[in-house]
């Protein structure tokens, strides 16, 4: 087997992993999409993300100015035309990789525009991903293949015609377009075009059919007209030549999601602007219905041979559901890999393996496996008059891989042709890991720490709450990574309240009295990730509450004295707690202390002294956090690495 760490697409290494919602870290072999970052100094900047500050997403009048012009329902006789040509050209459509896409155009996805707009609220223009409170996700090339039926392989949509007979066919289509007009004199009208060619037996009927399909359902750019720029694509497809429609369609979706996000942000200043969107947004709606159970209607049963999109044919949206809340709290219910689940009469792709496999990638490889590799590799998406960056390594769990800190990928500079070369660069002479179909991916603990910390900062910024600078020691703890397996010095994430038998303010930890059984008993009581989330929120809630209050000089001095006593009392109470359930006691006491601090602070009036008290309380809290974190680190060390490591950590803690 080749050195998998040098593979161009993914890498394999041992890491401490945890489930996305949080849990007990587990050291195991993990698989990541490249590029990743595994050193703290290279930690990536969090994606620039803003939520619209106005109430536009609840303003029906404002949202009425958003026009989804790319969502087209089937014409009256469209299915009839498809059914007539399928027996004649179905084999050619399969060879060209558009059979499912053509058949899928006869089905109808009823609009749920509010869902699209709510998703756009979470769109990040920089990364072409959705930034949810619980993680990062996006529409990928895999979704284009499964939901749209488009191919990721083949020639570019910008490929020119290079044979005499093909060029002559294009000229004939252009001449016909000029002559096919509506009563108003509009050339190339789609209804007039269909009436002209449907059942005519014209030698151009197949090319004309595909031209209408491309203009209405794939690349709609002009309302109600057959576009001339799709003629070369239609001609190639009619000859069974494969065209990579998936990246082109996805590029248009990324482009319009960014346009919608920018429009909503600017609309607060210009309330009269309109937003015309031409991408096929029904695919985004299907993407959401496949992954958000709370938002999806009960799907239809599939008949043999029907495309995946038929599951949602003419289904109405779920009523009585708060879309924003359903998205915000979907962390544990979000389906990262819906296409790996068994569905009656739907054939699962070959690259969804029952067990993990390593496959050698070369030019002779199965096309489905090459397609999967293409879906998992960063690239430039080239569409018709648009170009977007594709970053699957940021959403690795959607492909069954584990998630680590995503590395930076530079943009491809140059023409669309150069960008296409970037997308179409060969995949060869590497081994590709194919994850098991039902594998549940995890994240590195450093990723979970990074994500939760940054999301708290984002939420504070959106709510207008200033972020306070913590002490140097606390800042260093926040950057601690559990992912590094060299040395194992940093075993727990920052700001964790850990298990301890006795804690005094500024004193040592009496941890050598704990037994292995007591530690193992505690393992199942509370997940580390849940503790991280709860206590980070508690810590920032304390900052927000404190920063919004004022007090006079006398109240400050009194408050400092009272809080010093309360901190000592809290620590003494923690010392006397029994071993079982002590973690909950610690959290409860600290919460009570902070709540009491907040209530007292709210009674004061001097803003000049607020900062002083905040820094004092922060320092005290930080000392407790350091003590708790060292205790947790020692105990997890015992679980993972044995008693010898535990003794060293205990000695170090006591010497402190």
UniProtKB/TrEMBL annotation:
PANTHER family: PROTEIN MAIN-LIKE 2, PROTEIN MAIN-LIKE 2-LIKE. Residues 522-558 are annotated as: Disordered. Pfam families: PMD (PF10536). The lineage of its organism: Eukaryota, Viridiplantae, Streptophyta, Embryophyta, Tracheophyta. InterPro entries: AminoTfrase-like_pln_mobile, MAIN-like. This is Aminotransferase-like plant mobile domain-containing protein. GO terms for biological process: meristem maintenance. Residues 542-558 have a biased composition (Basic and acidic residues). It comes from the Eukaryota. Residues 97-452 form the Aminotransferase-like plant mobile domain.
């Amino acid at each position: 087997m080749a050195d998998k760490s040098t593979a161009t697409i993914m890498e394999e290494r041992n890491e401490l992993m945890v489930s996305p919602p949080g849990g007990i870290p587990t050291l195991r072999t993990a698989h990541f999409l490249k590029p990743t970052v595994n050193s703290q100094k290279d930690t990536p900047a969090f994606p620039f993300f803003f939520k619209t500050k106005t109430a536009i997403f609840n303003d029906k009048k404002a949202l009425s100015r958003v026009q989804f012009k790319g969502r087209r329902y089937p014409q009256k006789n469209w299915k009839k035309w498809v059914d007539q040509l399928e027996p004649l050209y179905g084999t050619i459509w399969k060879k060209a990789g558009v059979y499912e896409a053509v058949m899928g155009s006869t089905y109808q996805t009823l609009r749920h525009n509010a869902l699209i707009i709510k998703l756009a609220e979470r769109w990040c223009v920089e990364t072409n991903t959705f930034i949810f409170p619980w993680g990062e996700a996006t529409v990928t090339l895999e979704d284009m293949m499964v939901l749209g039926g488009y191919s990721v392989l083949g020639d570019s949509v910008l490929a020119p015609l290079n044979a005499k007979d093909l060029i002559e066919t294009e000229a004939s289509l252009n001449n016909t377009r000029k002559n096919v007009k509506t009563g108003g004199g509009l050339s190339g009208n789609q209804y007039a075009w269909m009436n002209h060619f449907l059942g005519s037996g014209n030698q151009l009927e197949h090319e004309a059919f595909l031209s209408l399909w491309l203009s209405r359902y794939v690349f709609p750019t002009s309302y109600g007209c057959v576009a001339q720029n799709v003629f070369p694509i239609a001609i190639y497809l009619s000859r069974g030549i494969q065209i990579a429609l998936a990246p082109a369609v996805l590029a248009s979706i990324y482009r319009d999601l960014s346009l919608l996000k920018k429009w909503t942000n600017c609309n607060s200043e210009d309330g009269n602007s309109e937003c015309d969107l031409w991408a096929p947004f029904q695919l985004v709606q299907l993407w959401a219905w496949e992954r958000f159970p709370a938002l999806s209607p009960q799907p239809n049963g599939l008949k043999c041979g029907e495309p995946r999109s038929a599951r949602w044919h003419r289904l109405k949206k779920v009523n009585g559901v708060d879309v924003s809340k359903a998205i915000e709290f979907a962390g544990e219910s979000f389906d990262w890999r819906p296409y790996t689940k068994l569905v009656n009469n739907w054939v699962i792709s070959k690259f969804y393996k029952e067990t993990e496999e390593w496959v050698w990638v070369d030019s002779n490889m199965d096309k489905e496996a090459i397609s999967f590799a293409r879906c998992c590799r960063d690239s430039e998406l080239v569409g018709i008059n648009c170009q977007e960056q594709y970053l699957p390594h940021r959403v690795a769990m959607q492909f069954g891989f584990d998630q680590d800190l995503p590395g930076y990928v530079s943009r491809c500079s140059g023409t669309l042709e150069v960008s296409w070369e970037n997308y179409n660069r060969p995949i060869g002479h590497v081994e590709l890991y194919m994850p098991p179909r039902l594998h549940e991916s995890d994240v590195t603990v450093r990723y979970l720490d990074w994500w939760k910390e940054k999301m708290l900062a984002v939420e504070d910024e959106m709510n207008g709450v200033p972020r306070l600078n913590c002490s140097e020691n606390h800042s260093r703890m926040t950057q601690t990574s559990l992912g590094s397996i060299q040395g194992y010095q940093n075993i727990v994430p920052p700001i964790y309240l850990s298990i301890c038998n006795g804690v005094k303010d500024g004193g040592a930890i009496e941890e050598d009295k704990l037994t292995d059984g007591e530690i193992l008993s505690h393992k199942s009581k509370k997940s580390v990730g849940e503790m991280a989330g709860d206590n980070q929120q508690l810590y920032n809630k304390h900052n927000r509450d404190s920063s919004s209050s004022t007090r006079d000089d006398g109240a400050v001095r009194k408050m400092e004295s009272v809080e010093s006593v309360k901190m000592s009392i809290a620590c003494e109470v923690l010392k006397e707690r029994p071993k079982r359930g002590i973690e909950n006691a610690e959290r409860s006491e600290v919460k009570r202390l902070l709540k009491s601090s907040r209530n007292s602070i709210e009674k004061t009036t001097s803003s000049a002294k607020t900062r002083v008290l905040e820094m004092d309380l922060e320092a005290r809290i930080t000392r407790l956090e350091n003590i708790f974190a060292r205790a947790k680190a020692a105990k997890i060390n015992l679980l993972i690495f044995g008693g010898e490591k535990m003794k060293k950590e205990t000695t170090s803690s006591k010497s402190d």
